[in-house]
């Protein structure tokens, strides 16, 4: 299983729009460091047999897929329905054309209904043989529980994201928790024994909807993964600062970071 971080930035990316010269607001991030340039959070999981699962379709998804050489997958998992995680849904039309079929969109019933209110035409039945629009088929899944995506077992778990819930997922020895500020006990049970955990860490100071550095470090002590990778990083999280200050076993994500782990169980 190959895991690729397509984007690791917050809802506005880094740099954010604006700035004195119009070239962006970098906050504490050094503009000269390429790994400080972050597109919106998204992830791709590819199994050894070529089956792929895309996690979220943010507004940068077209550039992310092109940059990482990804042109085929049959499954999308939606963590939640905020714009920075769904706004690029139209772009999967190109994937429809490559694979010659609709893509299955997994998410809770509430999340899929929210997406359909904004992209109703994408969920209409496909009329073969052409794709004049993106075509996805909704597949509701529970917020917490085991499901099958692309033929593989995936364990989903609930997360608190401030005013709403979001979904985390575990595939074998890997787990992904973007857009989370609190985790219920049942979700810690799903995370037990995980090897590599990608976790939301928007900034250094407490936040109402996103985990911050001290909270992630507390979670690390409890879960004890071998490797923690921080994602959904805001302009407070400078690459060099993180390299100098993060403890062993904790590292910063960057757009395009990839690694391999054993495939999860077949479903």
Automatic annotation (TrEMBL):
Keyword Hydrolase: yes
Entry-linked InterPro entries: Metallo-B-lactamas, RibonucZ/Hydroxyglut_hydro
GO molecular function, one term: hydrolase activity
SMART domains xrefs: Lactamase_B
Superkingdom, natural source: Bacteria
One Pfam family named in its UniProt record: Lactamase_B_2
Location of the Metallo-beta-lactamase domain: 39-232
Keywords on record: Hydrolase
Protein name from the UniProt record: Metal-dependent hydrolase
Source organism of this protein record: Acetobacter orleanensis
């Amino acid at each position: 299983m190959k895991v690729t971080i397509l984007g690791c930035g917050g809802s506005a990316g880094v740099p954010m729009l604006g700035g004195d010269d119009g070239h962006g607001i970098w906050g504490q991030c050094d503009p000269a460091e390429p790994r400080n340039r972050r597109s919106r959070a998204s992830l791709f999981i590819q199994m050894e047999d070529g089956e792929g699962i895309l996690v979220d379709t943010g507004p940068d998804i077209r550039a992310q897929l092109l940059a990482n050489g990804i042109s085929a997958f049959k499954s999308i998992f939606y963590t939640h329905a905020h714009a920075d995680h769904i706004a690029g849904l139209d772009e999967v039309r190109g994937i429809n054309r490559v694979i010659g079929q609709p893509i299955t969109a997994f998410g809770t019933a509430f999340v899929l209904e929210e997406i359909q209110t904004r992209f109703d035409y994408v969920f209409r039945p496909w009329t073969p043989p052409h794709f004049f629009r993106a075509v996805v088929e909704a597949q509701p899944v529970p917020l917490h529980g085991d499901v099958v995506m692309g033929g593989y077992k995936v364990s989903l778990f609930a997360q608190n994201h401030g005013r709403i819930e979001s979904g985390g997922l575990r595939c074998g020895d890997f787990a992904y928790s973007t857009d989370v500020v609190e985790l219920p006990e049942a979700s810690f049970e799903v995370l037990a024994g995980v090897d590599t955990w990608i976790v939301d860490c928007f900034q250094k100071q407490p936040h109402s909807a996103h985990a911050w550095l001290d909270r992630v470090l507390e979670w690390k002590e409890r879960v004890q993964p071998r490797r923690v990778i921080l994602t959904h990083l805001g302009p407070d999280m400078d690459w060099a600062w993180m390299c100098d200050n993060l403890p062993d076993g904790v590292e910063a994500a960057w757009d395009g970071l990839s690694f391999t782990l054993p495939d999860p169980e077949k479903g």
